[in-house]
Amino acid sequence: MSSALNWRHHVVIQSLLSRGPLSEKDLHAMFQDLTKRNPGTERQLFDSFILKINKALSCANFELRACIDQYDGQVYYGVVNTVSDEHSKLGTKYTVPQIAFYKAIIEAIVQDASANAAIFSIHALNLSLDSQVTIVTDSQSQGSQPNVPTALKNFSLSQKEKTLHELVRDQWLDLTTDGVIRLGLKSFLDLRSWFRNNDLPSCHVCNEAGIKAELCQNENCTVRIHHYCLKQLFLQRKVAEVCPSCGTSWPYTVPKAEAEQTEDDNEPRGSKQVIKSERKRRRANRVVDDEVGSNNQDELNESRESQHGNGLVQKRGRPRRSDDADIGGSDASQSLTAISDARRVTRSSARLS
Amino acid sequence: MRMANAAEDFSQFGISKEEKDKLVGELIRYMLFKTHQNSGCPIKREELTQLVTKNYHQRNLPTFVINEAKEKLSFVFGYEMRELQRTQPSSKARTQSSQQSVADSKSYILISQLPPNVYEKYVVDVNTAHLSGFTFVIISIVYLAGGKIPEENLWSQMRRMGLGETESSHPVLGNVKQAFELLVQQRYLQKDKVNGPEGNTVYYELAERALDGPMNDRIKEYISQIVQDNTSVGAA
């Protein structure tokens, strides 16, 4: 076997499986510690290391891949399952109602028309799980559990709260100190195909799903761009600060926290090998919540133009990556909301041309 | 050479290499996902066999697939798929051993093959490391009691460590009774009810997971280290 893995590869695989996703910085440090080679100056060596792992992992439909945390632009690596089959359904300790609750939160986050990719805890706890009945019933049809809808209805507030903390602990979600729920690292890693299959609007620069992004101020324009892609576009490429599509002025200001950190390449340097996932999920109906508070309503209401930017300074509560604590995820100075359906239609039309 | 043998072995079952690889991959995935879901509880060989026999009925094919999956788990992930022989409580060992077939009592766990220092530095999950400590302490108590201890004696020792059976919100372990019951499910301990002149007595014994060679050796090292530490503390 010319592509034999040694104990160093095993360390990386087992570490990611056991401890969860690692930042690029931490993975590079581990690689250097294990191999005594510098992944920065010997990038090809690091890439070959990852490629060899992925060739081996593919025999069981796993992949070591990179993703970008869209809130801070940092690159993270993790091992993900690439095929959704009956075996992978065993790989969770969460109950059916808990998974339905997680799905409801994810949908509320990604359907945020202002692309802030966040909801408040109170909003999450009040999400109705009724919209998840179809998905849950279909996935459980073989199990013939007629009481599943009842289980969803009986999922109590305290159970939701407990589940929320478990999802944060396991890094499927992220909870800031001021009670804002955001996507966790595992969601960015695992749901990449789901983002694409559900036709979420993508970033105009990197073409990945633009969940946490800045919107063009032109109401008729559908362009959205990640904050780190904006930085790359305007600062590193030295182009005019206008929308690349419609030419409307794009007022870009460097967030204070980001200005202090060293500028580095934001492009992921993970494995070139991509195993296409065959996971497809039907898009559930939008979650409608009548109990949104006034503050939430100003931010989340898709039919209203927001005159104020998100004043919240979102502090990241991730004890394992204390080195990232200085990087505040401050939002754009001004965000523009547009009707989600209109954007979707326009984008579809654009793709036909 | 090994590849040639493998090809010959599977060709006798009338299935292609692709079919074989698919079965092996499925078994690997099952082991990994099930191990995660059940917090490391042993997985019965019968479950693994059924993954193969639901679509293929060739005799001995499950054995070959399981052996191939063992090699792949070691080669790709660095995990040993260790086979355990299910033990019976001592009071039932004589009456039931002849009735239960050997195959039915086999189960598997995944163990990392990394050296302990590397494992501790890179792989140990800080969120669950306290459970390992708890496991070792409980097993050591039963070990020092000769491998079998009355339930009340065991809980008496645990209460001295601040672990009461009614404690449901321990700052580290959470529900102590649940954490303890997990040791039984993971087959570190097994429960044995004995009828005596004074009524039923519940005993806890070491089960196959704790009796497994490397684990057993580590328990001895661990106990002797504690004894040495206590000795040096006493001397100071």
Write the layout of secondary structure elements.
The complex is a heterodimer of chains A (353) and B (236).
Chain A (H helix, E strand, L loop, with lengths): L6 H13 L2 E2 H12 L7 H15 L4 E7 L6 E7 L14 H15 L7 E3 H5 L7 H7 L8 H6 L3 H13 L3 E3 L4 E4 L1 H6 L1 H6 L16 E2 L8 E2 L1 H10 L19 H5 L33 H7 L39 H13 L1
Antiparallel strand pairs in A: 1-3, 2-3, 4-6, 5-6, 7-8
Chain B lengths: L1 H10 L5 H21 L5 E2 H9 L7 H17 L1 E7 L7 H5 L8 E7 L3 H7 L6 H16 L3 E3 H10 L15 H10 L3 E8 L2 E8 L1 H4 L1 H23 L1
Antiparallel strand pairs in B: 1-3, 2-3, 4-6, 5-6
Helix pairs in contact in B: 2-4, 3-4, 7-11
GO biological process, one term (chain A): double-strand break repair via homologous recombination
Organism (chain A): Glycine max (Soybean)
GO molecular function (chain A): ubiquitin protein ligase activity; ubiquitin-protein transferase activity; zinc ion binding
Tally the beta strands of chain A: 8
User: At the first level of CATH, what is the class of the largest domain in chain B?
Assistant: Mainly Alpha
* Helical stretch tally of chain A: 14
- Describe the global form of chain B: globular
Class from helix and strand fractions of chain B: alpha+beta
What is the C-level CATH assignment of the domain at 87-135 and 148-199 in chain A?
Mainly Alpha
Intertermini distance of chain A: 48 Å
Multimeric status of the protein: heterodimer
CATH fold descriptor of the domain at 87-135 and 148-199 in chain A: Arc Repressor Mutant, subunit A
Domain MAGE (chain B): 20-226
Protein name (chain B): MAGE domain-containing protein
Pfam family, one (chain B): MAGE
GO cellular component, one term (chain B): nucleus
